[in-house]
Amino acid sequence: MKTIKILSIFAISVLFLFASTSDASVVKGGITFDDNAFIDSVIAQSGTFNTSGGTFAQVMTDTDEGTWAYSITPGAFATFAFTDNLMVNGSGADLAVFDAGIPEYFNITIGGVTRTYLPVFAGYTAGGYNVNIAQIDLDDFGIAAGATVGQLTLSFEGVGGGDVPDFSLVGAIHSTSSVVPEPFTMILLGTGLLGLWGARRGFKK
Questions:
Q1: Whole-structure pTM value
Q2: Among 68, 131, 66, 56, which Cα is nearest to 101's?
Q3: Contact at 8 Å (CB) between 57 and 135?
Q4: How far apart are CA 134 and CA 117, in angstroms?
Q5: Do 161 and 150 lie in a common domain?
Q6: Cα(7)–Cα(189) distance, rounded to whole angstroms?
Q7: For the chain, does the N or the C end have fewer beta carbons within 10 angstroms?
Q8: Computed from CA positions of residues 160, 127, 62, 65, in that sequence, does the dihedral angle turn out positive or negative?
Q9: Which of 22, 29, 17 has the alpha carbon at shortest distance from 84?
Q10: What value does the mean pLDDT take over residues 136-147?
């Protein structure tokens, strides 16, 4: 009976680990995101950044469209990474970049390809500023259908002499978990389930 209990706990724990790849969702600007679909870390940056409060990394990796960051440093940029999820090239727009205040053109680089976008007013405000959103299709960067992407670079410079963008939030509209079950883990799970089944049969005899 003790063996059965231990194996049951093991099997349930492992199954819970893979089942917990977030079924929850959150709506921002009328777009439904997985709750872990937003950028997680800053892996490179250049320039001096001004923020709504908090560090540059904090305001760029939170889930609040009411926080923002901008820079007036020539050539300012930042490269961001998704760690617990990845963008997926699905049908239509795959990525949403939020901007605060007056919409400004901005450049974004994915997979070595740079494109320019202009956010559109989303119809509401956050933190006292208009919320603007650019919905981006990974097709624009030559990403294959169904392929995943884990990094992107935003330029904080103004485009064509325009004002600098005030970035507030970046989220993957099409997202998948970056947690891939390791073969050894799956073998352990299978062995545990088989052991549980065998132990139960022996107990019944």
A1: 0.79
A2: 131
A3: no
A4: 7
A5: yes
A6: 10
A7: C
A8: negative
A9: 22
A10: 99
**What does the block give as tokens for 151?**
């990094």
Maximum Cα interatomic distance, the chain, rounded to a whole number of Å: 81
pLDDT band at 45 (very low <50, low <70, confident <90, very high): very high
What domain range is 169 assigned to? 24-178
Closest CA to 164 of 60, 70, 99, 85: 70
**Average confidence score pLDDT of the chain:** 85
Please give the pLDDT value at position 19: 44
Q: Give the pLDDT confidence score for residue 16 in this predicted structure.
A: 44
Among 10-19, 60-69, 148-157, 190-199, the least confident range: 10-19
Whether residue 108 is found in the same domain as residue 204: no
Closest CA relative to residue 158, chosen from 52, 59, 72: 72
